[in-house]
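Researcher: Good morning. I'm working through a list of sequences from a screen, and I'd like to move beyond sequence-only analysis. For each chain I'm collecting a predicted structure so we can compare shapes side by side. This is the next one on the list. No need for commentary yet; just the structure.
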Amino acid sequence: TTRGLLIFGISITPLHPGAGRIPGIVDLPIQRDPLGYPLVFASGVKGALKSLCARRYCLNYLDDYGRIKCSKLMEKCSETEQSADVDNCLLCCCLFGPEPGEADVGSGILSILDFFMFAIPAPSASHGYVYVTSPYVLSRTHGVLEALQTLGVNKAQDLKEFVLELGKKATASKIVSPTLSGLVDIGLTSLKVEARQLTSIDKVKQVFSKLGPIAQTALEKLVIVPDDIAPTIIERSLIRVTRTRLHISKKVVQTGALWTEEYIPVGTIFIGGISAIGRKNIYCDKIKIEIDQAIEKFKEQVLSESNGIAYMIVGGKETIGRGLVKLVLF
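Model: Good morning. Structure tokens for this chain:
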């Protein structure tokens, strides 16, 4: 029985996993790791998945802020009063844990990883767009896959072989690609790219094809950029939008209502994972869910995924069409 789940994701709309305010020209920046690579913190991924579970099963058991009232649910679970409706909502409490401020009854069974960037589309005058990654990103991806493999995720082995081979082709000073060669426009600069064929590429084509039409060409346009220039190229690929709030009657910008916000572009590919290595809480005991059952329950009841594909909304700006992510699960 697997205790892990590998997730590949692709942004269907621009994403704004907000990082609050930091010094700089962007008022509302996205989340980044210490080296400047975009990511979605695990707390945001967990919140999106828990919200998906709550909307599916707990609409009658939410507080005024849309949070699950797990402790109230337990009060309903007398020996004579326990329904499938309550059990399904308790599953959300079992998997993800109670809300802050409720009694200390233990965390959820599931442990959610950060959503790390694997490759990001960069505009290219010569190829329309290319997908940019780096040796550091590949090493980080390898670490995630290796950890999930130990938890019984069989697909992680094929992907790990692919990432390892990509990493071996990369160098500290040259830009390489499985397919592209010659001068390739990346961002605002024409750079020389060397083609280095991969023997393991067929093992991952199925993954990228499931992500959708944009990602299907990712392997053909994948470019490995040295770590010293990758953050700069990726920075140029991000979207920055200056927004205003108008005075409705006067149709002029309200005082102080001018700001700039940042987005991760459509087509960015992420890798993440979920593990079931925690301890059961009282909600799991109530509905008799064991740790070994957690991953299958999550896939079957929370995601209700079809053919290994699901969707979630992460980050802010949901009301203006931001944050939709397509997931491929293994």
